[in-house]
Structures are given as structure tokens and as C-alpha cells.
């Protein structure tokens, strides 16, 4: 079958590899019908995810059709259309019982702080991913969710990660009625966070990025005010000015580690940190929040050590919340939002690219070519 593999930093390629088989009675094999490239894949692409091994099959956002089930699988049958949350989780451990599915204790990556994810290298358990024709899905009765007939396949694939992650970012901000919410990052996750902020009662939503086309989309899709950080001297001061010099009630980091040029626009315009993986957006979030404000972090940080302005956070009495999204927990509510017409997630999809051309797809997404927001990969029939 065809699969996307990581050969070395900045080199994803399509390869012919063996098809996966049932390895455990609880497994299913899913034939992928759509998969996406995510900002999290950019961290692997940039070489910022520590335990990336040559030949890892990448991709954690996919949906498809059940092709085969192991003997213990009860709730799925061959031919079912499923969306598969990016978290791999057992459904019964201490963490799963608390619906912390992104932190499951029964997956391979127990040595690391997080749970297991599809296609996210040995850092997240070494499970093969979904930018491929077929995927082995462990705990098949637990993660996969049958796609309701009235849910479009392209909305379904965005329910595997980007939409629930943006939604959880807003939820973790504990937004109160009328709050001003600033979202750093106008990628798919930030856009869904901005849109979701209204569901929680925000009074004002401001999105910060450097890509004008994404900011323009944020104004339309999420009815947000926008700031292009390349056009202001100091982001935190600018945001304070926009908020009667108080700062934002809630700041959301939907950027994570960034290997590119934003470090040049660090705190008060001075260059503070230039190493790849600098938490610049998080600096800005902490410095832009009002005293007693809340910070919600869904941006992914590959390197485990980052300098963050913790003293400033302490002095301002901020509340910080962060996690990998617990996708399955949000699905019923998000499907209701789609059905009610509050959101059409697939509007963020700008590119539909054959799986064979995955190398181009990465180039377009990473380098923000052709006004790309979210590329979807379409396997051969
Ligand atoms: P993306 O790369 O498409 O978007 C990131 C955006 O941030 C880009 O538009 C970029 O221009 C902008 N940006 C860069 N530096 C910035 C700065 N200092 N301030 C403001 N904006 C800045 O990625 P995405 O798919 O939207 O994902 C966003 C982040 O969320 C990534 O770190 C990804 O790994 C993470 N993520 C986390 C989870 C989770 O469960 N916690 C799930 C999915 C993605
Ligand atoms: Zn993702």
C-alpha cells in the first residue's frame, strides 16, 4: 500500500509498504478515505519531535471504512464508515475513566508524558499513521466513531482532531459571558478555537497571526477581529491598547513551537530566543492576558524544555490549562453544532490532494503556498 513516511527533517515521501494486519483481537483495519496534514505534523517535518525514526508512517487525522475486525471487536463491522480520533486509548484506565483520552495509561508511550497517537513517531507510541491507504486501529471498540449518515466525510475528518482541539482550547479557557478572548495562531486549530469561543459566550474574539490570508479567513469564518503581528511593534502592548489597557480575559496558544521566523518579533521587539521551538506565542499569551486571566495551551511543544515567563504568570495570578485534546469526549456536542448549522468545519479545507502527491501537499501547507489552510489527502480508490 501507499504510505507517507518520514525519512529525515523536511523530507516526507510516499512509499510502498506492507499492508497492516490484525495484531491483537481488539484491532480493526481501516481503509482510509480521507486524511489531513496537521500543524502537529509540521513539528515532525521540522525535526522537533524527539523520537522520530526513519520510515515512521505519519498521519493522525483520518477517517475511512472498516475493512477487517479482530475476533474480540463487538461494535464495529466490516463496511462501517468511521472517523478515528487521533488519540489511541483503552477506555478503561484511570485516565480514560476521567475522559482524559489523550493521556491514556495503557498505550505504548508510557515512558513519555502523553498517551498514544496515530502516526506521531515513537514519541507517541510508534503507532503507524493515517496518511496511508490502510491503518491498524487498536482498541477498535473504543476510539472509532461511526460517521452518522448526515455528516459529510470532510466534516468527519475534521472531527478527528482540529475541530475538537480548537473547541477544547476554548473550553480550557473557562470563558465567561462577555469575555475578550485572544487566539494566537490562525491555523485550523486557532480558527476552530476562535469559532468555538463564541459557543462559550465570548463577547469579543481577536486572532493573531502573520499570514494575512489566514487572518482574512478568521474574520469571515470566526467573525474575529485580527492582528497581524508583523505590523505591530509589540503584540502585548497592542492587545492591551485594544482592551482598555487591561489585557485579555483569556489567551489561547494555538501555535506551539515554531521553527520559523516569529522569534524575530519577540517580547517588545527584542530578539530573546532564536532556537527552533521557541515558545513565542506563549510569551505573548502570558504578557497579553489581564491580571487574573486565563491561558489555554493546545499548541504542541516538541522539545521538552522551553523558557517561559513563569514569573510574569505568577505575578499576574494567571490560571494556565493545557493538554492534548480528548477528542472523543467532544464528539456528540460538536456533531450537534454541525447539525444546528452553527459551523461547517469543512470550510477550512482549501486543498484536496492525491495521497501520491503528499510531498507537494507538505510543501504547500508548511510554506503557506496557494493560501493553504487545511490540506486533505485523498487515497486512490
Ligand atoms: P498551523 O501550522 O496550520 O497554524 C499555526 C499558525 O500559527 C500559522 O498560521 C502561523 O503563521 C501562526 N504563528 C506562528 N507563530 C506565531 C506567533 N508567534 N503568534 C501567532 N501566530 C503564530 O497549525 P494548526 O494545525 O492550526 O495547529 C496549531 C498548533 O496546535 C500546533 O502546535 C499543533 O501541533 C497543535 N495541535 C495540538 C493538538 C492538541 O491536542 N493539543 C491537536 C492538534 C494540533
Ligand atoms: Zn492533528
Please give a structural write-up.
This protein has 381 residues and is an alpha/beta fold. It folds into 2 domains: 2-161 and 326-378, Quinone Oxidoreductase, Chain A, domain 1; 162-322, Rossmann fold, CATH 3.40.50.720. The protein has 11 helices and 18 strands. It has helices spanning 39-45, 94-97, 153-158, 162-172, 188-199, 212-221, 235-242, 280-288, 310-316, 327-339, 358-366; strands at 2-8, 11-16, 28-36, 56-57, 62-69, 81-84, 87-88, 116-117, 134-137, 145-146, 180-184, 204-209, 225-228, 248-253, 289-297, 319-322, 349-354, 374-378. Strands 3, 5, 6, 9, 10, 17 and 18 form a 7-stranded mixed sheet that branches. Strands 13-12-11-14-15-16 form a 6-stranded parallel sheet, sandwiched between helices. Helix 4 (162-172) packs across helix 5, helix 4 (162-172) crosses helix 10 (327-339) and helix 7 (235-242) runs parallel beside helix 8 (280-288). The chain is globular, with a radius of gyration of 20 Å. The structure holds nicotinamide-adenine-dinucleotide and zinc ion. Zinc ion binds next to loops. GO terms for molecular function: oxidoreductase activity; zinc ion binding.
Sum up the structure in keywords:
oxidoreductase, 2 domains, 18 strands, 11 helices, globular, binds zinc ion, Quinone Oxidoreductase, Chain A, domain 1, Rossmann fold, single chain, 7-stranded mixed beta sheet, 381 residues, binds nicotinamide-adenine-dinucleotide, 6-stranded parallel beta sheet, alpha/beta
Offer a quick outline of the entry.
Residues 188-259 form the Alcohol dehydrogenase-like C-terminal domain. The chain is an alpha/beta fold and 381 residues long.
